[in-house]
Specification:
The protein is α+β, with helices and mostly antiparallel strands. It has one domain: HIT family, subunit A (2-Layer Sandwich). The protein contains 3 helices and 5 strands; from the N terminus they run αβββαβαβ. The chain has a 5-stranded antiparallel beta sheet, with helices on one face. Strand 2 and strand 3 form a beta hairpin. The structure holds adenosine monophosphate (AMP) and zinc ion (ZN). Zinc ion binds next to helix 1. Zinc ion (ZN) binds next to helix 1.
Length: 114
């Protein structure tokens, strides 16, 4: 828990989040500014600032985040049409919240990256 971190506060319940899924490792909630019909964020309970801070000790956690995204896609009936998973890192990656999160976007034809 980082007391200055927005996503740590959502995880702890200090500020409200539209939570859709949680387990012992991760919490998922709807993005406050959705870019598609389905836009959720999957975040680890552990505070990790950027993907640069990941180590081999996080391998299972990262796999679990991706499998959680797959479950969200299935539960929302978008798995077959498809979806996009994104980690943004630091300034050039467009990261604005410094607690790693996996975006899942779906529900429309997504355009090219960049
Ligand atoms: P990124 O630019 O990858 O760091 O993504 C941060 C995401 O967090 C953006 O898509 C924001 O819309 C989203 N966001 C910011 N504040 C909140 C919040 N309080 N609840 C849910 N999503 C948020
Ligand atoms: Zn945090």
């Amino acid at each position: 828990m980082n007391k200055d971190c927005l996503f740590c506060k959502i995880i702890s319940g200090d500020i409200p989040g539209d939570i859709t899924y949680e387990d012992e490792l991760v919490v998922a909630f709807r993005d406050i500014n959705p870019q598609a019909d389905l836009h959720q964020l999957i975040v680890p309970r552990e505070h990790i600032s950027t993907t640069n801070d990941l180590t081999s000790s996080h391998q299972m956690l990262i796999g679990h985040m991706v499998l959680t995204a797959q479950k969200i896609a299935r539960d929302n009936n978008v798995a077959e049409d498809g979806y996009r998973l994104i980690f943004n890192c630091n300034q050039h990656g467009g990261q604005t919240v410094y607690h790693i999160h996996l975006h899942i976007l779906a529900g429309r034809q997504l355009t090219q990256l960049g």
